[in-house]
Every structure is written in structure tokens, then in C-alpha cells.
Amino acid sequence: MKPAGLRTRITVLYTVIFAALFAGFFFSAYHLFRGQLDSDARNEVTDRAEALRGYLKFEDESPVLRFDGDFPENGDFRDATRFYQIYDPVTGEIMTQSQGMLSLGLSIVSREQESPLQNGFFDVTTDDGTFRFHNERVRSPAGHEYVLQVGTSLKPMQDALDRLGSLGLWLGPLALLLAASSGWFMASRALNPVRDIVHAAQKLDLSNLDHRLPVSGANDELDELAVTFNEAFARLAGSVGEMKQLTASMAHELRTPLAALRGEAEIALLHEGSVDELKRVLSSQLEEIDKLTKLIGQLLMVTKAESGLLRLERKPVDIAALLCDLDETLAVLAAAKGISLTFDYDEHLVAMGDSQWLKHAVLNVVDNAIKYTPEGGSVAVRGRKVGGYVVIDVRDTGIGIPVNAIPHIFERFYRADWSRAKDIEGVGLGLNLAKWILDHHGGDIYVTSEVGKGSDFGLRVPAF
Ligand code: ADP
After folding, report:
1. Which among 51, 117, 156, 320 could bridge 76 via Cys, Cβ 3.0 to 4.6 Å?
2. Which domains occur in the chain, in start order?
């Protein structure tokens, strides 16, 4: 984003809208004003005609204006006598004409046989401006028809319109200038916080992910933007922190078995031992290599799950068959540790989801139960349908989990101190992965445990 560009665009848009509004308003006002003046001019000319008609007399069948007594002071009448004429529409003869008409050189006569004259208005343009005339038929007592023509100058109307036009001409640019500068000012004010956010965001990098964008507290859209960015940075910081932790733990977890492998190989090379001795070293190395393979497998699964690219299948999963498989896989392990492992599940137990991932989740929990149960203990796995869910219950008589550790055991790389102290192999990824899998199936995982007595893990998956 380029703030200056945006500011210009907002200003231009604001000015254009303002100009359109101003032009629309001005032209409507101009139009209305002109319409009003026009109708005033029509009224004026008809009023004048009316005023004049009162003094119209016929002498020997000829129309003349007669004022008995003084010249009327009536304004309409005075104006009416400026531009008028009476003519015979048949012969075209002008019977009488005002001085104003004479000096204008106007003799507008329309003979009936040429163009039948209508009562009404018409405009005539002269060197002295435009005039509006009104024609009216008047009848003599003997029934002869004449045309009474009264006019008025439209100059005052034209002058008023010209004044309004020139007012618009200098007011328009002035208003536009004002609109542009206020638009620029408002856009700058509105965009200043954006510029601050940009500057703050530019300073952010991996080394200072704790830095946050300023929030003004106005609770407006810009605050929302800053808060959204801050939340995104917090998530980013969290992910980066987890990645750092993952890398550090990976290095740590890989270093120990690798060092052991190297040490054993060195000793075997230094002391030329018997074939049996070498076999013992190799089989111990195989164990270490298995642990490494398992660890790398878990890490790969976690990274795959976290990548966001993974798509879990949504198919019916035969949980009874899945538990049967696990029974076969883990029986040897449990037997080797002297632990009684029992499986008990309903025949028709079908869940909805991804069989591979669900198997990982259950395997991790049962594997933990065996891992954290001392010799002579027992692990009981039970599968049943409860409501719309398939519930797998894994109960052991192992070391249990301290109350303060329970909220953390599903966190990545979390290992209760006991597990570390007792040197039980593990990295703290198993339950985290199991939780991720169940969450992404619309299910959940929960635990109750008592130190020294054992733990009870429950896994719930939506049933098919
Ligand atoms: P780990 O690789 O350490 O087993 P997990 O994520 O599977 O990692 O488990 C996290 C921690 O939860 C373990 O380190 C252990 O302290 C505790 N835990 C998990 N399952 C049990 C269990 N059945 N009994 C006792 N503690 C358990």
C-alpha cells in the first residue's frame, strides 16, 4: 500500500463527488430560477394586457386608448403603455402603437390569411434585447376583431440569470478548491494512523516478534486493523516459538541416542571383542536406531498435522477391527513388561473419520498406558457406543499424573517431571498429536488420574 497514492485517490474521489453534487445543485437551482422568472414574465405581460384593456375604447369602430381624467398611476398600466400595439388581423393595418414599439422599430403583424393568429405568447429578439409579447383578440361593439399586442422586456430576467451564472462560475472553482483541500486534510487525518501502523509493521522481524502495533483506543476500523495484525503477530510469534522449541527439542532428543550409538561403535572398534560381543553391541544399536526412527516418525506426523495441508479422510472406520489390530500389535510389548493388557469392545463399533490417524491416536494413548504402568499392573481398553459417539476408554494401574500436570499433558513437548525422573522414554508429542487428531474429527480426549493409582483416558469420536 502506498499511503500518498491512496490519499490522492480519496481526495480526487471526494472532489469529483463534491463537484457532481455542486453542479447538480447549481443547475437545478438555475433551472428552477429560470422557470420562475419565465412564469413571472408571462404573468407580468398578461397583467399589463389586462390593465390596458380597461382603457380600450372604440371610436367609429377604431380602437383607441382613452384616459378619462388623469393618466392612471397604476404601475401595470404605466408599464403596459410602453410596448403595445393594436392592429387589424385581416388587413394588417396598425390602428395604434406605443412610442416604445415605434422606437424599437417593431411592428409585428400577423395577418390571418398568412398565419391564423393564436392568442398566446411569443418572444422577439431585437438589438435592445429580447421582448415577450402577448396577443389577445378584442372585439368592437360592432363585432369587428382586432389584436391587442402587449410586450415586456426580458432584459431584467436575462440580467438576473447572467448574474446567477457568473456567481456559479466563480463560486464553483472556489468550492472545488475548498473541497479538494478539505478532502486532502481529512484523508491525511484518516490515513495517519495507517502510516503509523505501516512504520510499526516495517520494524517487525523474527527477532522482535513481541513488538505490537499501536492501538489508539478509538475503537474504530483502524483499531480493528491494528488489533487483527497484533493477533496475527501473536499467532506468528506462537508458531515461531513452537518451531524454535521443536527444533531445540529435536536436536536434544536426537543428540542423546546418536551419542550413545557413536560411543558404542567406538568402544566396539577399540576393543576387538568376540563375535557375540559385537552382536550385543549391534543389537543395542538397533534398539537405539528404532527409538530414533520412532521419534523422527512422530516429529514428521506432528509437522504434517501442523502444516495445514493435511486432509483427514471422512469414511466409516471399523473401530472394533482397529482395536483388534492394536491388541495384536501391543500384546507382545505388554507381555514383555509383565503387564496384563485386555481389550473389550462391542462387535459393531463404527466411527466416522480417518482410520490411519485414529489408529495413531488410540495407539499413542494405549502405548502410554503400558509405558507408565509398572510391571504387574494392568491396562484395560474398552470400546462402546455412547449416544452419537464411539468412546474408547483406556484405564491403567500405572504411576498416575499429578493434578498440576493434568492441564499440560496435551501440550506439545510437555512431559511430567515424574516421567523424566523415571527416565521413561518419550518426547511429549504423543498426547498432543492424539488431541489434534480427535479435535479434527469433531471428538475429544479427556483424562482422570490419581498419582500412584493409575489413569483413565477417554477418546470420543463421532459414530457413523
Ligand atoms: P511422552 O512421549 O512423554 O509419553 P505424551 O505426550 O504421550 O509424551 O505424554 C505427555 C506426558 O503425560 C507424559 O510425559 C507423562 O508424564 C504423562 N502421561 C501420559 N500418559 C500417561 C499415563 N497413562 N500415565 C501417567 N502419565 C501419563
Report:
1. 51
2. 6-161 (3.30.450), 221-305 (1.10.287.130), 314-462 (3.30.565.10)
